[in-house]
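Sequence only, no structure available. Ideas?
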Amino acid sequence: MIVIYHNQNRIVEVSSAVKADFSVYVGQKITAGLFAIAIQFPDEVLVWCDQEEKENLNLEAISGFFHHTKAIISYCRYRGAYLDHFLGYVEATPYFNINKKVHYGTWQMSSQVGAVHASVLITVKDQVNLKDNFDYFLNSLAKLAMPFGLLCYSEPALLLDGSELKNSCKSDYYELFRFVKQHYKRRWTFLLFFNLLYFEKRLLLMPLLYSFLYRKRSFDPSGLNKILIQSNRNIIEHKTIDVLIPTIGREQYLRDVLELLAKQTFLPRNIIVIEQNPDPNSTSNLDYLWQQQWPFQIKHKFIHQTGACNARNIGLELVESEFCFLADDDLFFEHNLIENAMNAFETISNEVFMVACHLKEQTIQSMPPKQFPVFGSGAAFVKSSCLKNLSFRRGYEFGFGEDIDFGMQLRNHGFDVIYLSTFKILHLKAPMGGFRTQPVLRWQNEVFQPKPSPTMMLFHLLHQSPEQINSYKTTLFINTFERKYWIKPLHYYRIFKKKWNTSMYWAKQLVNE
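Reply:
I predicted one. Tokens follow.
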């Protein structure tokens, strides 16, 4: 491990147990010096730390964060992040409005304190601009490489005292527009300008024009792809797994899934089936559960209350094994699916991951494991200890958004979501899909029907920043604007606003459910 102390611009000290003369790097610009040290010591973890935090640096914890080499971590004690909070008008992913109190996946990096394995820097040395200031360089690198498998985290344990500092260290508007121009599609530069003008009453014409001097940055992942994730951390103790399946009206599809599970090369211990039928006089239609012999125990609950959130919450209470496979009742998968999943827990040592789930007409492109902004409860593997004190929020019942909300709950408890494309699940989309019963929505008699749906608005209220919500409002308006409204655009705006306000009202009613 090599620790590089800096004063925001230049290296002021280098400390390491490695026997070498590091004095030649003192006085160099931090970005260039970091790469020079990486090339000389390709097998070391490189740590950077603002000299003001030298006594606060938690050196003992750092080696534990690098149980594999394909990662970059940092932490910022300052309020917010380096890139201005107005970036929320562009960035809609869970990686922007982050929880700084826990280990959290994000491309937002900080020069205050952080670490990366030298091999990562070596693979990208020809794709970065050493003239960037250190904060801009770190954020650019992570933003470009994260979609291709570099695992990026905010890690408060890097410092002994991670309490927030009242002052801030952030970019100016010129850097903000430049970053958007270099890392997002071109239209987002103009949308940022419009959103700042409309919502913030700021006319930032010069930063907009300044951004035209820069080209969009690209990233070649071929070098990064050569770094394989092989963790030396063990998160497996008992190596057992349960499968949770909520079902309603899909007897044959569920039976097919159970038979696939029975042929697995690694058998689950328990299959938890939550069967729903709204008819209070009905009885179970799953007689094959007890008439047929299965190589695992089946825990069957038959309830008369419909709703995926309620069903999954009942099932979560019945999970006993060390791991859990959250599945749908209309899937098809290979006989080694669970074996591959257990191997993934072992090699990656991440507690939550999504398997590539696709429709028949879709083709999945194989890629290295990567962080994923979406969580789906029909194709997810989770370590059961992560599920404690978590539940599918009832406010989403009969709507949309419960999956991505549950993913945010996991993230806010310090558990990242990794996507694996090397083994797949086929989603059959059974004909009796959807809710299969017509729910009575509380807002169905509203004169102006809510748009977006109150459940989607609920997600935005719970997990996104005000800037992200306003940006969503802008893009929704643009995407739903129809040609017939060109004659009376103000009329459409008034209608849109009323629908938005209706959605906002009902979403606030759902918050505490």
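The longest strand covers residues 418-427.
Hope that gets you unstuck.
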